[in-house]
Amino acid sequence: MYNINIVKKYLLLFLIIVLGFFLRVYKVDTVPSGVLVDEAALGYNAYSVFKTGFDEHKIRYPLLFKSFGDYKPPAYFYSQLPFIKLFGSNNFSLRFPSVLAGTLLILVVFFLFNNLGFGFTTSLFAAALTAFSPWTIILSRFALESNLGLLFFGIGLTFTIKYLREDKILFAILAGVFSACHGMDILPIE
């Protein structure tokens, strides 16, 4: 039988994550209104790759996306493809990867604090701060590659700390994988 206090604690974490998701996803297709230029470039190239396999510059499945004279990292473009398939090409499918990244960041912050040795209550408080911080909510409502990068960085850091504490090679491998994913999402240099 489960300890009822542990179930209540994790239920509270679950509720924080659900509320955090709701704050990020509610009317995300209309608030903020319109799209930023960078969001439009992300959406256009992702839709182009989804439909044709080529970006706007006729490069097949590129690893760097040229956009308005600079280059964009590929992680956010490719993370949009399943949502374009499910929901079509619209503001919702454009911004939904950021919504998911912002929501998953709540859980990552909880585990990060827990692995740093803070207790359950402090880790829960850190997760709640992440969930209800206006800064994280607002940024999660824009299609920005930095949202995905922060998530990958947080997961990589969490697994690095877990590896340093437990010395299991699996955690080192996972830290490397997510750090590489973060590397695929930081701004590339021409």
UniProtKB/TrEMBL annotation:
Question: What is any one GO biological process for this UniProt entry?
Answer: protein O-linked glycosylation
Q: Where in the cell is it found?
A: Cell membrane
The record's InterPro entries line, in alphabetical order, gives:
ArnT-like_N, LipidA_mod_glycosyltrf_83
CC terms in the record's Gene Ontology section: plasma membrane
Q: How does it sit in the membrane?
A: Multi-pass membrane protein
Q: Per its UniProt entry, which superkingdom is the organism in?
A: Bacteria
Domain ArnT-like N-terminal positions: 16-181
**Main subcellular location:** membrane
Q: Does the keyword Transmembrane helix apply?
A: yes
Q: Name one GO molecular function term.
A: pentosyltransferase activity
TM stretches of this protein: 92-113, 120-142, 148-164, 169-189
Sorted alphabetically, the keyword list is: Cell membrane, Glycosyltransferase, Membrane, Transferase, Transmembrane, Transmembrane helix
Q: Which Pfam families match?
A: PMT (PF02366)
Alphabetical list of PANTHER family matching this protein: MANNOSYLTRANSFERASE YKCB-RELATED, UNDECAPRENYL PHOSPHATE-ALPHA-4-AMINO-4-DEOXY-L-ARABINOSE ARABINOSYL TRANSFERASE
Protein name in UniProt: ArnT-like N-terminal domain-containing protein
